[in-house]
Amino acid sequence: MTLRMAKFAIGQVVRHRVYPFRGIIFDVDPVFANTEEWWLAIPEHVRPRKEQPFYHLLAENAQTEYVAYVSEQNLVPDTSDEPLRHPMVPNMFVRAPDGSYRAKSVPAN
């Protein structure tokens, strides 16, 4: 299996290519790292390949905020410049004056 570099970075705001939600990336897996049951629950005609980066998002749609696990092939950059309302964003990120987000530093144990 050949690993490739992730296209998106921690702190980047992205949108789902198909479904109406957006979010901020807080972690990246180089390949699929969820359960087989989770993967098989995705309808086969839209099931992503496992051999690509998968992203953990603090996600939000019109109704709610949640954590999502999304394949790289299903993400596109979000260029709306709208602030995120997910309640965990301020715990993990700082919003810069230009609207970008950067991860808060975590103290070493």
UniProtKB/TrEMBL annotation:
Signal peptide: none annotated. Pfam families: YccV-like. InterPro entries: Clp_protease_adapter_ClpF (IPR053189), Hemimethylated_DNA-bd_dom (IPR011722), Hemimethylated_DNA-bd_sf (IPR036623). GO terms for molecular function: DNA binding. Residues 5-104 form the Hemimethylated DNA-binding domain. It comes from the Bacteria. Keywords: DNA-binding. This is Heat shock protein HspQ. It comes from Salinarimonas ramus. The keyword Zinc does not apply.
